[in-house]
């Protein structure tokens, strides 16, 4: 047995094991994209340690699904989508069905306008949660993150026309969800 798991085949040449090729590929992905993924995560997660953990978890998930990556394309979109999913999952875990404490209730806005804005934000978040993941990601990138249609298309690895179509239908679905929730503005 040769170093790094390479085995000698019958004619004396060494061949890499599939696990070694996967590890090498992941290492190259990490070297090329880890800084960008960490910067992306830090935009949403202010805690440095948590952001680093989510970045590591992103690459672990990608390693478990290396077969989904196209060798000819740019894997950054897949990495960012994976990271966004992990960020969303963590946020939901931390905020789902958690009763408000007295301290949190005291921090709610005191004026009617501030309270209306806070309640509207909660309703918009609820409405966004009713969108499909594809529509939600387009809305997030275009309207919250400020990406252009071209940048969004590149990040999601879809054509620009698909981004435009998804944004149209996402906004239509968002209007319907907001109407159902009683948001009239």
UniProtKB/TrEMBL annotation:
Domain RNA polymerase sigma-70 region residue range list? 29-94, 127-175
Identify the keywords attached in UniProt to this record, alphabetized: DNA-binding, Sigma factor, Transcription, Transcription regulation
What Pfam families does this protein map onto? Sigma70_r2 (PF04542), Sigma70_r4 (PF04545)
Q: Where is this region: Disordered?
A: 1-23
Q: Is Transcription one of the keywords UniProt gives this record? A: yes
- DNA-binding found in the keyword field: yes
Q: Which NCBIfam families match?
A: sigma70-ECF
Q: Family per UniProt?
A: Belongs to the sigma-70 factor family. ECF subfamily.
- Protein name listed in UniProt: Sigma-70 family RNA polymerase sigma factor
Give the species.
Amnibacterium soli
């Amino acid at each position: 047995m040769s170093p790094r798991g390479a085995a000698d085949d019958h004619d004396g040449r060494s061949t890499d094991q599939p696990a070694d090729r996967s590890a090498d590929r992941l290492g190259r992905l990490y070297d090329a994209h880890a800084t960008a993924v960490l910067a992306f995560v830090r935009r949403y997660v202010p805690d440095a340690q948590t952001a680093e953990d989510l970045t590591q978890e992103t690459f672990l998930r990608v390693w478990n699904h290396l077969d989904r990556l196209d060798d000819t394309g740019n894997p950054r979109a897949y990495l960012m989508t994976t990271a966004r999913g992990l960020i969303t999952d963590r946020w939901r875990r931390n905020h789902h069905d958690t009763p408000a404490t007295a301290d949190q209730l005291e921090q709610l806005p005191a004026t009617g306008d501030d309270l209306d804005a806070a309640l509207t934000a909660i309703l918009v978040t609820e409405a966004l949660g009713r969108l499909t993941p594809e529509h939600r990601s387009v809305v997030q990138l275009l309207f919250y993150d400020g990406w252009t249609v071209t940048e969004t298309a590149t990040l999601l690895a879809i054509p620009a026309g698909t981004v435009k179509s998804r944004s149209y239908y996402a906004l239509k679905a968002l209007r319907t969800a907001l109407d159902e929730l009683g948001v009239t503005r």
